[in-house]
Amino acid sequence: MRIELANLEDGRRDFEKAYQPAELDLGDERVTLCGPTSISGKIRQAGTEVFIDGHVDTCAQVDCDRCLKPLQIPVSSDFELEYISGGEYEGNRNVALTEDEMSVSVFDGETIDVDEVAKEQILLAVPSRSLCAENCKGFCPTCGANRNAGDCGCEEKEIDPRWAALKNLVDGK
Ligand SMILES: [Zn+2]
Ligand SMILES: [Zn+2]
């Protein structure tokens, strides 16, 4: 869904949109959608800037980083966005940007693509690391068995490099 700024009444509009999982392509191999997405919010234009306050709900699915078990992550997040048109941005580029302004997005000055907003917000809400459990044992490096399912009986030959570094410290090497 695209919102044409020219169609805003008094520079404002509320919006609301729901998507089936297949309707939103997140463009990220790590993350898929396991339920419908809904997004709603208010859009407000002030001169060359556009502000959006909104909320997105969905169910995102990622794989456990260690054992690849699919994990469903409920997403329910509020967001505040600020857009500035490309021309305005170019004009201000030599002015040092404050940290606040770094979060401003550039847009074409005419339309806001709500689908893109939904995708961005979903991806931001999904943690970059995901484990099915803090103590997930992952796969055995020797036989490839899922060690959460039970001990595969292989000898633990490889020492985790982090422990090896610690051991060296202790040994005074
Ligand atoms: Zn796992
Ligand atoms: Zn094994």
Structure write-up:
The chain contains 4 helices and 8 strands. It is of the alpha+beta class and 173 residues long. The strands form 2 sheets. Strands 2, 3, 4, 5, 6 and 7 form a 6-stranded mixed sheet that branches. The protein has a two-stranded antiparallel ribbon with strand order 1-8. The chain binds zinc ion (2 copies). The site of one zinc ion has 6 residues, from loops.
List keywords for this structure.
single chain; 173 residues; alpha+beta; 6-stranded mixed β-sheet; two-stranded antiparallel ribbon; binds zinc ion
What is the fold's blueprint, element by element?
Blueprint: E1 2-4, E2 12-19, E3 32-33, E4 37-46, E5 49-63, E6 70-85, H1 86-91, H2 99-102, E7 105-107, E8 111-113, H3 114-125, H4 161-171
Parallel strand pairs: 6-7
Antiparallel strand pairs: 1-8, 2-4, 3-5, 4-5, 5-6
**Derived structural class:** alpha+beta
N- to C-terminal distance:
61 Å
Bound molecules: zinc ion
Overall shape: elongated
Number of helices: 4
Low-confidence stretches: none
Share of helical residues: 10-25%
Q: Please state the average pLDDT score.
A: 87
Number of strands: 8
User: Roughly how many Å is the radius of gyration?
Assistant: 23 Å
| SSE arrangement, N to C | EEEEEEHHEEHH
The main sheet comes to: 6 strands, mixed
Percent range for β-strand residues: 25-35%
